[in-house]
Amino acid sequence: MHIKAGGGNRNVKGLAMSKYGREWSHDLCGCCGSLGTCKLHCFAYFCPGMVFSKVKKRLDHLNEKGYAEPNNGGDGCSSECLMFHCGKAIIQQIALRGAVRARYNIEGGGCGDCFTVTCCGACALTQNSREIELEEQSMGVLRQ
Fold it and tell me: What is the mean pLDDT of residues 27-41?
């Protein structure tokens, strides 16, 4: 994947970096830290394809354009959502999680991503979205 320069702060919380990267900005199970996060987690639990599609569009837009996607990933009804529900959900989520880790230099690997997505896909989608949201906020974009 080619990542263009630009974008916002990719370590907003100033987390310590090791030679393997840094930790996630939010805990995996911190899904109900705020009302907005709790709603996102519920949406990810009941409509994971739509949340996956929105998170992927936001990440792709940051990678390609260097600024936040203006429509918050759209309505979530897209080809990504359809493909998500055609038996490729776990593979797509593992790939998305790896792309988020790569963009934000977060430590971990494919085995951990596989385990996380398999055990709690909704928590993983919420954590991915929150990581992207921090960068968007550093650019002055506030998501609801």
Answer: 82
pLDDT at 80: 66
Instruction: State which amino acid sits at residue 61.
Output: H
Q: How high is the mean pLDDT of the chain?
A: 85
Q: Tell which phi-psi region holds residue 73, choosing left (phi > 0), alpha (psi between -120 and 50) or beta.
A: left
Integer distance in angstroms from the first to the last C-alpha of the chain? 29
Max Cα-Cα span within the chain: 39
* Contact criterion met (CB below 8 Å) for 55 and 73: yes
Instruction: Please provide residue 105's backbone torsions phi and psi, each rounded to the nearest 5 degrees.
Output: 50, 50
Token pair 């354009």: residue = 65
Helices then strands, counting H and E runs in the chain, come out as: 6, 0
